Amino acid sequence: MSSDIKRKVVLITGAGSGIGRATAIKLHVLGAILAITDRDIFGTQETYRLCGGKPHYWGVLDVTNKDDISIRIAEIVSRFEHIDHVFNCAGINPTTYALTDTSDEYFDSLMNVNVKGVYNITKETILYMAKGVGSYVNVSSICGLRPKNGFAIYCATKYAIIGFSKSMALELGPMGIRTNVVAPGYIDTPTNAAVVEGQEAVKAMVDATSLGRMGTAEEVADVVVFLMSKEARYMNGSVVEIDGGIKLI
């Protein structure tokens, strides 16, 4: 895998922490050239530092801001000439709300980041993607495959990502650009809803997983990098669940 990732230019959104950061570090170890972005300047800079600094690029990027995106993509293309892979990892994790308690602001925030953000980045980068070898990897969730009580808006965004990505696969496939999706389950990151809620919520997640533990960001990163590699060259429009065996209870 390392030989075909080496020197490839990879744009990562949401790289300032969690799965985005773990993926950046793995790609750096494999010799990729990274465009590390996140709306959190401190997280972005820390990921850049962990990846050794140059020759990588780092920049603050809000995936809901089209002007911001245009500037950053122009900088990346000016520096590297093209983009081989895009990891659309920026997203907002859910807060448990009954529909009667959901605000318009919460709805708009999740839709704008989790769905429109992927659309914005995709639309802006298509013309610069390497034909024949390029790929997108988008982040959905197990909540994009099965519903969860109290997560109606989050589920809506993650179901949308799967539909959007499968349409991307059909449209971009003839250009030799693949699109695949990762659907993580209960991953131990600082923004995971259970981690935020506390140990009781974490235990409930662990108990619901057949492997008896939460996953790690690094375990998701392994799959993301595989989907970018030539080993996955005939995967297009696939949705890969990374959930440790969620119990159907």
Automatic annotation (TrEMBL):
UniProt keyword list: NADP, Oxidoreductase
Keyword Oxidoreductase set for record: yes
Protein name: NAD(P)-binding protein
Pfam families: adh_short_C2
Single annotated GO MF: oxidoreductase activity, acting on the CH-OH group of donors, NAD or NADP as acceptor
GO BP field: abscisic acid biosynthetic process; fatty acid biosynthetic process
Family: Belongs to the short-chain dehydrogenases/reductases (SDR) family.
Record organism: Hymenoscyphus albidus
Keyword DNA-binding: no
InterPro entries tied to this protein: NAD(P)-bd_dom_sf, Sc_DH/Rdtase_CS, SDR_fam
Listed transmembrane segments: none
